[in-house]
Give the backbone structure.
Amino acid sequence: MSASKYTDNSAVKRFKAAPARPPLKQNRGVFHILRQRCFNNIGNSVLTLLILLGGFYLIKGMLDWAVINAVFVADSRRQCMEISPDGACWAGIISWFNGLIYGRYPIEEQWRVNAGFMIAVAWLLPLMSKGLPLRNFVLLSWIGLFPFLGGYLFLGGQFGQELGLLHGLMTSLALAYFVLNYLNWGLHKLGKQGLHEVFVPVLSQWIQRRVHLTSLLLVWGALAIAIAFGLTQVSLPSVAIERWGGLFLTFIIAGFAITMAIPVGVVLALGRRSKLPVIHWLCLVTIELVRSVPLITVLFMAVTLLPIFLPADVEFNKLAQVLVAVCIFAGAYMAENIRGGLQAIPAGQYEAAKTLGFGYWHTMLLVILPQALRMMIPNIMTSFISLLKDTTLVSIIGLFDIMLMARNIANDKDWIGLHTEPLVMISILFFVICYGMSQYSLNLEKRLKVDR
Amino acid sequence: MATLNTNAALAKEEVKAIEIQQLNKWYGDHHVLKDVTLDIYEGEIMVVCGPSGSGKSTLIRSLNHLEEYQEGQVNVFGQTLARDRQSDQLIHNTMGMVFQNFNLFPHLTVLENCTLGLTWLRKLPENEANRTAMKLLDRVGIAHLAERFPGQLSGGQQQRVAISRSLAMEPKIMLFDEPTSALDPEMVKEVLDVMIDLAKTGMTMVCVTHEMQFARQVADRVVFMADGEVVEVGPPEQVLVNPEWDRTREFLQHVL
Ligand SMILES: Nc1ncnc2c1ncn2[C@@H]1O[C@H](COP(=O)(O)OP(=O)(O)OP(=O)(O)O)[C@@H](O)[C@H]1O
Ligand SMILES: [Mg+2]
């Protein structure tokens, strides 16, 4: 292998790389592309023109109905018909708009719904800073704590009476974490250490291990106690769950399903691969059973069967039953997505993790699941979008979600028979949301691609 | 040719790092390890060679329990391995492994690949883990690639990351299963150089490899395996230059 293999060194030619040339210019103009793709021969030109013509009439028809001939101000459907018989009657939607969004939630309390959703979004904003300390806890706390805070805002009630002790305490913890998180985010942005870090030097005189965690818990706890005391002083009027509805309720159910789908799905998928027969079969049967029946059946089962299985004195509201049902349904589908992802992970990844000393849970959480989930982002997002749309089925068991509110419009004596416009409205709403989700998933996929 | 052979096993006090005794393994009816008995001394560089399918991978993967074996026993620093937590702990504390296909974690950066074990298992604070990992990456000459993802590196660079990742856990014994077989010829040298450096530090190494040049230069002893059996063991100048068995000669004619 050494150079001595070539004895005659004098005749060696020296290799020199050829200089690089710039790439050929391509004509990228719109007209050029149009001519090349759409008008490149007579047949294609005719086809293009026909499609354009057809599209024009379709769009014109829709515009005529939805905008040009539409009525935006009227008191009743009859008035709409008198003004313009072949246009959309948006006046009905406008007068019912509040109902479509909030259901029958009392108008003067609707700010609580808005506040709840704004906090839900705001909670996640700190995720945007990459180097934030405790960044992992942002999402975890959102999943674990926000539901209590949301529940309190939406339900209302006085701490200690309608608002149970446990729920009240969890709400205080949630609010405290939210505040602390924002404080620490702000301090981090300013280049300072987090609030709880201030106490670390003091604490480290007393304890040696987990000083940071202890300090965080102490500050968080103190804040929560202060907030709990504050909660006892205020009282939000109760709003019964029966009055929740519209897009608000759809978001609650879909949001719950979407958040719980991955944790439940992961548990079911891992359980299905478990070597313990009991766990394996339990998960397998759950997944297969739930996947082979329609969501409506699962919903009906939850509403009618759940109360039978549980002790009689456990009081149930329909929403909780629906949430449980949707959660299991979403989890079972997600489990199959995740299983697909898990199967795509090569055995070498498990072996590498094992030789480094990672046990089962570390391997799963740090190595396998992050890859499996990223690989399945398109499928997961598809499931989320179907979930969002499927939740409109809950109107069948009498929850006043956006679909049932839409049907209510047609039953209103002023707007009797107004079916089309609410459905068009809902379609537009869902399209905007679902399209947004799918675009976000594409973006996420690009950002988190495993094989960069 | 300069030789690195130090015969560490002879020079040092002879501490047995690994003792393999009467190891037998079957895949179904297929007997893939037949009464393998072998001692590996602390600080020794042991090269395992042999034709494809002779059981080399199976043997070293049995040492760190990536494979099960049906008969025989393995002692690591005098302790007999069993299928229990204590043995797993011993394996993790003493052995690292480098694979043919690198098996880096593709969703983590090079640096994160190396710090993952330090932060989650050794519970080191982040900056300390980073410092340790950077030192190791520097040692294998890829500190400047620390923020890249494995998919953005060449094979040789990936294998060097894999070596640093194993070294981060401070193993006493390193197992290499054909670390250069998946590499383009031009990259083989950079990985072998890292291994040679490692050998100089006194690490105990068991390397399955077809790089006979490396074996001759670095190995204290060479093991030749065929059909699940250890055919010969000895210093490279004996096994590779003057083998006793016809099977060894036949093999060497093919690879050299
Ligand atoms: N999972 C398995 N199931 C059944 N037989 C196997 C399995 N893995 C390996 N074998 C068999 O065991 C024998 C030894 O395989 P091993 O991978 O240890 O060989 P090797 O010496 O490492 O070969 P190579 O040089 O090709 O890597 C081979 O005959 C192989 O066919
Ligand atoms: Mg092999």
Q: What stands out?
A: Strands of chain A lie at 157-158, 235-236. The CA atoms of residues 203 and 211 of chain A lie 7 Å apart.
